[in-house]
User: Fold this.
Amino acid sequence: MTVLDSRPDVPGDHNPIAAPGALLTEAGVSMAPVEDLGAGRGPFWLDDWLRANATDVLAWRRHIHAHPELSRNEYATTELIVSLLRRVGLKPWVLPGGTGVVCDIGKGERCVALRADIDALPLTEDTGLPYSSTTEGAAHMCGHDAHTAILLGAGRALAGAPELPGRVRLIFQPAEEVMPGGALDMIAAGALEGVERIYGLHCDPRLEAGKVGTRVGALTSAADLIELRLTSPGGHTSRPHLTADLVYALGTVITSLPSVLSRRVDPRSGTVLVWGAVHAGQAANAVPQDGVLRGTLRTADHEVWKALEPLVASSVESLLAPTGVGFSLDYRRGVPPVVSDAESTALMRAGVEAAVGEAGLAGTEQSSGGEDFGWYLEHVGGAFARLGVWSGPPAPQADIHRPTFVLDERALLVGVRTLVHTALASLA
Assistant:
């Protein structure tokens, strides 16, 4: 398959899209466009840009999909983003770590930011798509390839606008899939300096393409990691009284800590502890000397999140004290909850309505999933929304983070229009 980009390279600029097996080549476009669900809604320059470049957006997404890169290793993706932005006269800069891109469009004191994440997951794809991942053990099964292509489209469309009422900052963030997340790298590098609001989209396979779900308040939860290591002298299972029964102690924490927390925090906070891994011992008749327990602790309440670490530490100590088992607790704070403020959400809803009409507006549920966009909202106001990528019945709903996740590419153009109109509404 040969798809986009047919524009000449910037002189002296390395062309990252000419790699062997790339879907993007200098030969031009040979792929069918998809329906633009917001066609004709304006502004005229956005309609014109999408008529001429809609297949570019699809091609960028398919190329990135076929060439995924894991967190903080997104070097080729970063190079591609820089190249495509430079081709329209923009001046992007790369984070000190070599991955991640920031780029301003327009002039003026006021500045709003639009963010996309660019990293892939350590999964093996099983979709059968002709542009499936060519990288072993890495795949875009969370839609970050779509997020990146959408922001590239929005940025290049905005770069062609006759005039903007202020500046729009594009933030192409690395390492969203690891905790505490690449958003902290962006913030440390100054990506939020001068920004008054920030917006982002995330693919949602439960919403139909053409719809965007918004919510005032908590959209995702804080997500922390817990690793508990236990130690015991070990011994024979026939004489547990002569040692410290490590497996029993593990079981005590596994069953009791979630119950204790449910009685120590406000149940309206959506706090939930779930264990994901437990390892101890080999022989049925031997008390092991060490074991490990790992899990995630999530909450939608910001104040509860701040109080959880000392509460977990004191609860673990109390539960294990009668067992005689030694322990070390590694509590790793992950990401804060994503909490969209009312004003920013209203501006984003106005952007959605301008992009695809009132029928495109949808509500959305609060999720226990984590998303490091929350770090940005610790510093500036903003809103995060869910972009419908489901084709509708009878198509199955393939959830994110699964090897079979697919999306309706009509959503890419909806995303471009939504980000452009949200930025314009926010700067108006």
About this structure: The longest strand covers residues 197-208. The CA atoms of residues 248 and 272 lie 23 Å apart. The first helix runs from residue 44 to 66.
